[in-house]
Amino acid sequence: MKGELGASNGIAVQVFIPSDVAFVCILVLFAFTDGYINNIAMMFGPKSVESGLKEVTAGVLVATSSTAITLGSILSAVIVKAL
Q: Distance from CA of residue 74 to its chain's centroid?
């Protein structure tokens, strides 16, 4: 694959997906599937436990989801800086 100049700093980087349309399609696919899977887990997680554990299960699911989103954002910033 041929390296192209980065937009912000002029450093040559390798382009893995040369088409903007393909990149946007992949991004939309990931957004919909992640949102769908996350919503299914949030809806059916508390329903799959005993009635006394529903609030705890919902809290754990929200905390896990929030932590995953936060860590993903931090890691993506670190990875972009490393490139």
A: 11
Continuous H helices in the chain: 20-44, 54-82
Residue type for position 33: T
CB count in 10 Å sphere of residue 81: 7
What distance in Å separates the CA atoms of residue 32 and residue 27, rounded to the nearest whole number?
A: 9
Is beta strand 3-5 parallel, antiparallel or unpaired with respect to 12-14?
antiparallel
The pTM of this model reads 0.63
Distance CA 14, CA 2 (A): 6
Confidence (pLDDT) at 61: 93
pLDDT at 62 over 90: yes
Report the pLDDT value the prediction gives residue 21, as an integer from 0 to 100: 93
**Residue 14 β-bridge partners:** 3
d(CA 65, CA 16): 29
